[in-house]
Amino acid sequence: MWPAAALNDAALVGKEPALPSTICASLPATLTTNSRSLLDDSVDAGGTNSQPDASRIQAAITACPSGQAVKLVAGNSAQNAFLSGPLTLPSGVSLWIDSGVTLFASRKPSDYQIAGKNTCGQTASSDNGCQALINAVAGNNGVYGQGTIDGRGGAVLTSGIYANTLTWWDVGALSKTLSSANNQNSPRLVQVTGGSNFSLYQVSLQNAPKFHVVTSGVNGFTAWGNKIQSPTLAYSVAGYNCAAGAMPTVSGTANTTRASTCFTPDTVKNTDGIDPGQSQNVMIAFNHISTGDDGIAIKAHSTAAVSNIQILHNRFYYTHGMSIGSETDSGVNNVTISDLTVDGYDVGATSGFRIKTDDSRGGEVKNVTVNGVCVRRVAQPLAIDTYYGDAYGSSNALYPNVHDITVRNFRYLDTTGSSRNGTNAAIDLRGYQSLGQTLPASNITLDNVVFDSTPSWVTTKTSYAIPSYASVIMGPGPVSFASMLTSASGINNFSVIDNRSTSATAYDCSAAFVSFPSSNSPI
Fold first, then answer.
1. d(CA 389, CA 132)
2. In 10 A of CB 449, how many CB atoms?
3. Active site members
4. What is the residue extent of each domain of the chain?
5. What pLDDT, on the 0 to 100 scale, is given for residue 250?
6. Which residues contact 290 (CB under 8 A, 6 or more apart)?
7. Which one of 1, 120, 350, 416 is separated from 22 by 20 to 30 angstroms, measured CA to CA?
């Protein structure tokens, strides 16, 4: 699935994880998927039998010696499914899901409830109510195998006020339509908190109720060769061409009375692919990601800075793109993004590469290199904005300071039939200038950045102009919209230095866009 140049990348030598060498326990599946590759509702209807495999999987994990793994395997009569609520993976112990085997998540919100927090399976002012399906502490361990973890985001809930009425994703939609409760309390698939050296290797993660993979405070995280997708074909149709009335309500009057039966990435809110937060020494390579929010979002919030992040050879499909932020208040330093493909499928809130922050959660973002990116069908191919969500003047006074960002060998392609060609593809360059602070987005280098046609500038509700308070260096390679930049130079504290000296060939994207490698993908 990858060209030889990617597979032979010197930056990856010796970095690929290996499957665990010692198995402490092999657990056979006792459940079987149906023709849609799901579990029949009868398995856990009414909230009974909601997590029949949780206790034996957890018991095996708890008894497993450090340095070994619990392996989930098919049953003797071709059973291929497990059903569980939250599992805890301690330092040193790994989980291996064998090829052809699926670990399904309980659809009973009370199974995930964190005592004393907001109610899991409902919306609230914060989203702290649910445990993840897999809760891990890093320690030379991980989740491995060519099997699948399925969060059942499109399945009808079996407890709480929306029992037998809404799905996890319908609850997510409520956070858009209930103005007084704008956070969804839904479980993540994998949460890794603290410790060192955790691997996510060759796993398919799909249909997460919320984020797929999140790390927090981890030193040494590798995500390699995974397929991450929400929704799959089991909860959608080919091309995401859902019929009217079948999808969640995401604007206007809130829906609390019917379960949706078809979903698109636009209607599975906050299902980010991989969010490395507050973490250092991160390698994310050879992943295919198609989700309802950011493909990858680097976040640095409160507790620790993010540093030494390598994002190499990844393919994004229907996502919001590659993001740094929105939380950057503890600092982001030394990020390399290389050989990235982003296909936005013409959705509204989608980007290629963006840095998004504001003074409610801002901090220093520096030493970021983006080199070798192919983008098409997105609203904002390139964006650096310190007023994310139109937030400014926050009492938090966490001032965003973005500088020393290099974008090189970046190509935006017009695509036949796309609504995001030409000026409908917009760019955003806006530094910070509020609360008595002036922090320009400085030393933004554009080197061999080529769009098939001239884009436009983004427009937002915030009164601060775009572009403004930013300094751009062009070159030595070409910048196809150079005249657009130079014509804005000298206005609103926006400046351009022209160091172009070569006419390099635009970055080659002829083999960049390939199909999502799964038979259960709608695209």
1. 27
2. 26
3. 293, 320
4. 1-293, 324-523
5. 87
6. 228, 229, 230, 265, 316, 317, 318, 319, 516, 521, 523
7. 1
